[in-house]
Structure formats: C-alpha cells, structure tokens
Design a protein that fits this description.
Oligomer: single chain
Number of strands: 10
Shape: rod-shaped
Number of helices: 7
Radius of gyration: 51 Å
CATH topology of the largest domain: Immunoglobulin-like
CATH architecture of the largest domain: Sandwich
Largest sheet: 4 strands, antiparallel
Length: 294
C-alpha cells in the first residue's frame, strides 16, 4: 500500500542531501485520543476491559498507515490483545479519517495503576517513520466486593450490642438489689431504734412481740428478690416465718435464747424490767448485724 504523510511530508525523499527535520503530528493535523468516552470505569481485580486509542487526521486525498509499536502491559495490568477499526466522518466541512485501536486489558492487582503511553509509527517515503504517542491514563482497581465480610461484621456488632445490653441490665439489677437491701436494712434499723426509745415505757410483753416481728422481717428479708415489690413480699413472708422451727432446724445459729424470750412473751410471761428488755434489744441488734450508729 502506498502511504504519504500529507503534502508537507510528501516532498521528503531518500535522495535528499541535507538531513530533513520531520514535521510533528500536530503540524500534519494528526491527533491521538486515549481512553473511553466519559473516563475509566470502576474496576476490580480480575476485570477485563477495553481501552481505545484513536488516531485521527484530515484526509485531503491522502491515506495513512498507522502501526502500533508498544503494548499496554504495566504493573498490575496485562494486555490480552488488540484490534483496530477504521472510520471516516465530516467535521466543519472537512473529511476526517480515523483508526481506533482497542486494547483488551485485564486488571491483575489493586491500587492506583497506570495505563502507559501507547506508541505508534506512520511510515513515510523518506524511510524515517513519524512517531505518535498517547497520554498515560490513570486507573483505579479495587478488591472484589465480599458480602461475607459485611455479614460477619454485622453479626459481630449485634453480638457486642446484645452483650453490652445484657451487662448493662445485670449491673442495673445488681444496683437495684443492693439499693433494696440497703432500704430494707435501714427500715429495720429505724424500727429497732424506736423500740429502744420505748424499752422503759411500753408493756414488756407487747414490746417483746414487736421485737419478734422485727426479727421475722429480718429473716424474711434474706429471701428478697431484686426488683420485686419488696414491701408486699416482706409483709407476707414475715408473717409466715416460724423462728422456733428455724432454730430447731439449725438455720438460726445463736438465736436460741432470743427465740425462747419471744415464746415466753407469747404465752403470757410476767413483767420484765427495762434493763432486761434493753439487753434483749442489744442481742437482737447483734444477731441482725445492725449498728446503732451508722
């Protein structure tokens, strides 16, 4: 095929005596455009994509032979093949010819990669080819989307959330239990202080039975459930407490003497002096672990 590089290059022959400076592609009206229209698409490792490079020129009766001399191989990118297609169009009243070289490339690595500048040659009549070069194009390649990692992340997050809520509820329940026990303890202490003030003025039998009632509340409070209606449960549980039976079963060690005094009072025991009741009061305070000054 006979090839000429427009009129400005047609006069160059091998018979020229002086070296001839080759015209630039711009001077000859030759342009090179690289990359797909709209820019490079999003890519992941393993994707195969087309990368077009178009060489265009104003025809004006001449034809060009464009020969690709470089490859698109680069770090993380491998060229699988190249195809070409010629076309003609009219722009601003001028006929434009073009050859599009489509490089098929596979992405082999992730990161910010670069499609290298692609080289072409146009043979001339003087034996020295005209060199063309496209621009280097950047391309971003990401790792393939892995939905399993998201699923695992969501499962871990949910597990941590549930564990956090469970620990929070346990701490709240523990605090409520401590607060309830503290409230029950303070209530018993207040009743015991009132009994102390009445130790010399109250009927000794009634006073002992009131003390027995407080002791039953103390024993019943050992079975309180955190978060329950403690006032109602205490009333029911205290009335059901049998101190005599618990002493016999060995569940109230050290309470034997105190329980005998309560039994004596219930069955009509005689009048007692205030100091005797005060000693009984001290014994009950010690057995229940209540301090007069707290």
């Amino acid at each position: 095929m006979s090839v000429a590089v427009q009129d400005s290059a047609a006069g160059l022959t091998q018979d020229s005596i002086a070296p001839v400076e080759m015209p630039t592609p711009e001077q000859l009206g030759i342009s090179v455009a690289a990359g797909p229209t709209g820019g490079m698409p999003a890519l992941t490792v393993g994707d195969t994509f087309d990368f077009p490079v178009t060489v265009s020129w104003s025809v004006q009766g001449s034809a060009l032979l464009v020969v690709p001399t470089g490859s698109a191989n680069a770090k993380g990118l491998m060229q699988l093949g190249v195809s070409q297609e010629s076309s003609r169009s009219v722009k601003d009243g001028k006929e434009i010819a073009s050859i599009t070289f489509t490089y098929k490339i596979v992405a082999q690595d992730t990161g910010n990669l670069h499609i290298p500048a692609l080289k072409f040659e146009i043979p001339t009549q003087i034996g020295q080819p005209l060199d063309l070069r496209s621009e280097s194009v950047d391309v971003r390649v990401d790792a393939p989307f892995n939905p399993m990692s998201i699923v695992v992340g969501v499962v871990v997050f949910v597990c941590l959330l549930v564990a956090g809520l469970w620990r929070s509820r346990r701490r709240a329940a523990a605090k409520a239990a401590v607060a309830q026990k503290s409230a029950a303890h303070n209530a018993l202490r207040e009743k015991m202080l009132v009994l102390k003030q009445r130790v010399n003025v109250a009927d000794s039998r009634e006073w002992l039975l009131e003390l027995e009632s407080v002791c039953k509340e103390y024993v019943a409070s050992k079975g309180f459930v955190a978060g329950a209606d403690c006032a109602a449960e205490n009333s029911v549980a205290a009335s059901a407490v049998n101190l005599d039976a618990m002493v016999k079963d060995g569940k109230l060690e050290g309470w034997e003497g105190l329980v005998e005094e309560f039994a004596h009072a219930r069955y009509g025991g005689g009048k007692r002096d205030g100091f005797e009741n005060r000693e009984t009061w001290k014994t009950a305070m010690k057995l229940m672990g209540i301090q007069e000054e707290e």
